[in-house]
């Protein structure tokens, strides 16, 4: 729905603060619910040392998306952030293939290539664009919201760079 929203509503790309197409607010609200549920599931069913990075990631997303849901503002910006989740399809498929012990298969290899490609396009590029947008629009964003956004980006960007390095090392430089 996120890329589709930008295609159907080009005005969204001009105003990520106050404009959002029908259903966009609901999508961000449902995403908050997903991250809350996944957070609680990890908290209850995984050891902290295995999941602390994802718990931290989910906390940042819940706060940032929660602001968009509660204020009915920055929904467009949250939609941009949801582009990152396109790559999650391939990250999750990678985990499933690892758990099924299918590391030495063509399917795993193909997924690894697609995973890295979508990682660069939908994670790294999107996060860089979001930081750039925040920086360019700092005068139009209230200081508290700007601080939350920049702190969120300051947390998410290194986490994603580290994960990218781990994926490269694991899948391509064994």
UniProtKB/TrEMBL annotation:
<dbReference type="GO" id="GO:0071709">
    <property type="term" value="P:membrane assembly"/>
</dbReference>
<feature type="domain" description="TLC">
    <location>
        <begin position="1"/>
        <end position="174"/>
    </location>
</feature>
<dbReference type="InterPro" id="IPR006634">
    <property type="entry name" value="TLC-dom"/>
</dbReference>
<keyword id="KW-0472">Membrane</keyword>
<protein>
    <submittedName>
        <fullName>TLCD2 protein</fullName>
    </submittedName>
</protein>
<feature type="transmembrane region" description="Helical">
    <location>
        <begin position="147"/>
        <end position="168"/>
    </location>
</feature>
<dbReference type="GO" id="GO:0005886">
    <property type="term" value="C:plasma membrane"/>
</dbReference>
<feature type="transmembrane region" description="Helical">
    <location>
        <begin position="113"/>
        <end position="135"/>
    </location>
</feature>
<keyword id="KW-1133">Transmembrane helix</keyword>
<dbReference type="Pfam" id="PF03798">
    <property type="entry name" value="TRAM_LAG1_CLN8"/>
</dbReference>
<dbReference type="InterPro" id="IPR050846">
    <property type="entry name" value="TLCD"/>
</dbReference>
<dbReference type="GO" id="GO:0097035">
    <property type="term" value="P:regulation of membrane lipid distribution"/>
</dbReference>
<dbReference type="GO" id="GO:0007009">
    <property type="term" value="P:plasma membrane organization"/>
</dbReference>
<keyword id="KW-0812">Transmembrane</keyword>
<dbReference type="GO" id="GO:0055091">
    <property type="term" value="P:phospholipid homeostasis"/>
</dbReference>
């Amino acid at each position: 729905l996120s890329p589709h929203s930008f295609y159907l509503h080009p005005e969204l790309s001009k105003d990520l603060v106050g404009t959002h197409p029908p259903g966009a607010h609901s999508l961000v609200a449902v995403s908050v619910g997903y991250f809350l549920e996944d957070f609680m599931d990890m908290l209850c069913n995984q050891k902290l040392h295995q999941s602390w990075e994802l718990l931290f990631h989910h906390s940042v997303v819940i706060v940032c998306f929660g602001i968009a849901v509660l204020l009915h503002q920055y929904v467009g910006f949250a939609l941009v952030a949801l582009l990152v989740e396109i790559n999650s399809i391939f990250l999750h498929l990678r985990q499933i293939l690892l758990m099924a012990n299918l590391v030495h298969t063509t399917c795993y290899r193909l997924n690894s290539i697609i995973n890295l490609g979508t990682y660069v396009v939908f994670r790294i590029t999107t996060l860089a664009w979001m930081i750039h947008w925040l920086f360019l629009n700092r005068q139009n964003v209230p200081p508290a919201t700007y601080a939350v956004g920049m702190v969120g980006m300051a947390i998410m960007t290194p986490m994603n760079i580290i994960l990218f390095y781990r994926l490269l090392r694991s899948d391509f430089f064994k």
